[in-house]
Amino acid sequence: MSIRHPVQLLVSTPELLITASDSRISTFDAITNAPISHASHHTGLVRFMCAYSDAATATNYLISTGEDKQLIVSKLPHLEHVSSRGVPKRANALEVTEAGEIIVGDKFGDVYVFPLEAPADAPPLTGDDEKDAHQPILGHVSMLTSMALLPADPANGWEHDWIATGDRDEHVRISRFPAGHIIEKYAWGSKSLVSSLLYLPSTGPSARPATSPLLLAAGGDPTIQIFSLPTAELIGQFPIAELMLPHIAVSAQRPVPIPAGRRKDKRGERKAGAKDADSAAVSEAGPDGEVEMEAEAEAAPSGARQMSDLPKGLVATKLVEVGTTRENGGVVVLVSGCTALLFIPYACLLAPAGVPSPVTPSLLPFSHPILDVVGLPVPAAAGSLSELLVSFDVTRASTAAEMDALPPVARVSVRSDDLSLAALPTLTTDAVLFETACATTATQPAVSSLYPLLSLLHHPGDAMEDGEGTGEKVDKRNRGKKRAGPVDSDAATDSSDARRPGKRAAGRAETLQRYEDAKRKLATELAAALTEGEKAAVQEVESEAQSDAAAAGATIEGAVVA
């Protein structure tokens, strides 16, 4: 049975509305919603799209990349294939400069620049040749999660183009572009991963009053950080956690461990050590040893192999600028796995600390999680400052009938009178968009496919303990360290000795065991048969007992060991 795949990406131009559902990209007329073209140039889920208009040739392009690690350039509006290039690693960010340079940031923290037009005679590259052909202009030690271009602004203090990049380890770096090895600034203030960056240019001297350029950063923090440019100084933080956390409906899933004996390396081959161990086991167990092992793994209880949900967390995935001025505009905030959309007017976002704002943030809840949001070029409703198109996760419906009836997208208005969000009624022309925007798939998309940033909130080594994720305090000291085995409580002088971590616990357990052996020999008048280790154990334990008694103000008489 096939189901509708949700629209995971939305892009708009003055003339077009572009959607991506699974690996299929579709274009629609921005005014009438009439379908123009569909194409499936990608072999995997499309993760990022950017539109670019070449003024010299009056040609519009669409640049896309996804799970197949292909960078594809198509002509708009009919999605004619222009070029396809492989990227070294899977992309985590995609931008296009005004000159048509394609900037790709990957999951390994590197940033690459590709020309819009691929070399016509370039042969396909694989392996090490591909790595050598693409040299990054900058790199992060951690996974890169966001990127924003900052064009040169001599009037405000920077002569060169800049690029701001954020990573999983709370860093926001501002580097020169394309000479990324020159680091201009660091924007300090984030405490978690930075998954969204938004550049707000200066309003210029014509505005009254003139405003300075700003950089907004959001992600796993409970606030949006506001940095002043060009100094990258943190000038404010706006809290969003209390507004958005009650509406988060999706959480990351804990990955299923790979069964022993079936681990593979990056090339899909069995590791040499595991292969040698398996061959030795097969020689003893017979030629079908590995088959039996895999069958045993498959026969394990299904509940043990099912993925369980991790605690819900907040991660802002997109910041969208709305309006043309700082007086009547604002920022729309999209949070991964959240069923509500948040609009923060500039008058509220940029209000000085302690000064009450004349307007308040506007929250618009929906019934299903929102996957993407984009501004529409032409507002259709009267009284709208701007209109947005949001896409929903239709796979979260409880029944098949509800899934079929749920519209994949909806229109939202930012009202000009009170700067609030309002859902707009469905237009007659929207029916065509609803019918053709979604691709079909045989299986339900995984949470990691539709909400990839949620998994970044939890490091792979984090272990869930009793009480974690429920608001209870969890003692995480000595997590992951080895603990000693059970020890006789009568022989232990301290109940905490049995839970000492690491080598110390093993040594303590051995000492107590020798002490027990010495006591049994002393009780049977075999003191002369005590080993040196047993004598040392008796002296150590009794010395500790005397020290504890002296501290308590008492005296004891211990055994004398020759």
Describe the secondary-structure layout:
Layout (H helix, E strand, L loop, with lengths): L2 E2 L4 E4 L3 E6 L2 E6 L5 E5 L6 E9 L4 E8 L3 E7 L3 E7 L4 E6 L5 E5 L3 E5 L12 H7 L4 E2 L4 E7 L11 E6 L4 E5 L6 E4 L7 E7 L13 E6 L3 E6 L4 E7 L1 H4 L27 H14 L3 H10 L3 H4 L10 E7 L7 E6 L4 E6 H4 L12 E4 L4 E6 L8 E9 L7 H6 L3 E7 L5 E3 L6 H8 L2 E2 L5 H4 L51 H22 L8 H21 L10
Helix pairs in contact: 10-11
* Number of domain modules: 2
Fraction of helical residues: 10-25%
Radius of gyration: 31 Å
Biggest sheet layout? 4 strands, antiparallel
**Principal-axis shape:** elongated
CATH architecture of the largest domain: 7 Propeller
- List the total number of helices: 11
If you consult CATH, what is the topology of the largest domain?
Methylamine Dehydrogenase, Chain H
Region (Disordered): 256-307, 462-515, 532-562
Biased composition (Low complexity): 549-562
Keywords: Nucleus, Repeat, tRNA processing, WD repeat
Protein name: tRNA (guanine-N(7)-)-methyltransferase non-catalytic subunit TRM82
Nutshell version of this structure?
Helix content is 19%, strand content 30%. With 562 residues, the protein is α+β, with helices and mostly antiparallel strands.
Task: Characterize the structure shown.
The protein has 562 residues and is an alpha+beta fold. It folds into two domains: 9-251 and 310-457, YVTN repeat-like/Quinoprotein amine dehydrogenase (Methylamine Dehydrogenase, Chain H, 7 Propeller); 480-562, no CATH class. Helix content is 19%, strand content 30%. Strand 11 and strand 12 form a beta hairpin.
